[in-house]
Design goal:
Length: 229
């Protein structure tokens, strides 16, 4: 009997693990644009493109990486913000021509803004020495993107790619917001570094369920909006 229980428990855990990994992987690849550095593609509207010739390689790109904060009560980053800061830094391609991190999030649950906590953690504890901007007024995901857009516009070049970093499902929701606000910028969306196979399996399982529910609600809102327009 104990062996059967262990086998059953192992099968259940393996199923949950597989579900969470698949859900996060799929979400990390959704609602992207047509700038695909990894596969050497860029939209034909890009002035450097001509059919059958040009490719956007990593060394051509100017990366803008938008890192979304999470409610943080104290001055030290909580586990979720530590993960997001690390995911933001590992989104940087060392071959890119330039990289800029935009940390987003106001003081929603504490006295210090999420953006400031992320930026300080990245620099003081993760050794980040590159360029960053802090957007410290937003209190929702929608505001994260709305307030990041002017910063993106200020830094935009013909070679810019944009990544949005959070957990996979939250980042997908934020990408949807960018598509609604600025489709021209959304066409530049590429995957960030928030998905890694096998990372934080328990947290991934919970986040997958919550994220899929939130995205289903978002899709219903989008469908309703489309019918009414």
């Amino acid at each position: 009997m104990p062996t059967r229980v262990l086998v059953t428990a192992g099968a259940v855990f393996a199923g949950i693990f597989a579900f969470a990994e698949a859900a996060h992987w799929r979400s990390s690849r959704k609602r992207l644009g047509d700038h695909d550095v990894a596969r050497g593609r860029r939209p034909w509207s890009d002035p450097r493109s001509s059919p059958g010739t040009g490719t956007l390689t990593a060394k051509d790109s100017d990366q803008i990486i938008v890192v979304l904060g999470y409610g943080n009560r104290g001055e030290r980053p909580n586990g979720i913000n530590r993960f997001r800061a690390r995911a933001g830094l590992r989104s940087i391609d060392p071959m890119a021509r330039s990289a800029l991190l935009i940390f987003c999030g106001g003081a929603v649950t504490g006295r210090t803004s999420e953006a400031a906590i992320l930026d300080r953690f990245a620099r003081e504890e993760l050794g980040f020495t590159g360029r960053s901007l802090v957007e410290d007024q937003s209190t929702t995901t929608w505001e994260n993107i709305a307030n990041a857009i002017p910063l993106i516009d200020r830094e935009l070049t013909p070679f810019t790619t944009i990544s949005i970093v959070s957990n996979s499902h939250h980042a997908e929701k934020a990408r949807d917001h960018l598509w609604r606000m600025r489709p021209d910028l959304a066409r530049r969306l590429v995957p960030g570094g928030d998905y890694r196979f096998g990372e934080h399996p328990l947290m991934k399982a919970v986040a997958a369920i919550r994220g899929l529910i939130a995205l289903a609600a978002l899709d219903r809102e989008n469908a309703k909006r489309a019918r009414e327009s």
